[in-house]
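Lab channel / #folding
Pinned by the channel admin:
"Please post every new chain as: sequence first, then the structure tokens as a reply. Keep commentary short and put observations after the output so the thread stays searchable."

First post following the new format, from NK:
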Amino acid sequence: MTRRKQARWSLRRIALGCAVAVSLMGGDFEWDLPKGFPRPAVPADNPMSIAKVELGRYLFYDKRMSVNGKNHAVRVIVKN
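Reply from TO:
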């Protein structure tokens, strides 16, 4: 692993750790949805958190999640 990749990996882990710490402090999750977009249904026993959003974003861009380890979801899923 190159130094640059190692630094990025460390920064991602730090950011995810900070997001987890913030979400553990409590508070309601603020949805940043476009006007007219319905709020998603979230179970009461599994509330939405910043940590979950950050984890999802991290996994979305992680190439290790692909079948061949070379592509991440951004290359496969077309964002509108």
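NK: The helical segments are 3-24, 50-60, 73-76.
TO: also worth noting, The chain has one domain: 1-25+47-80.
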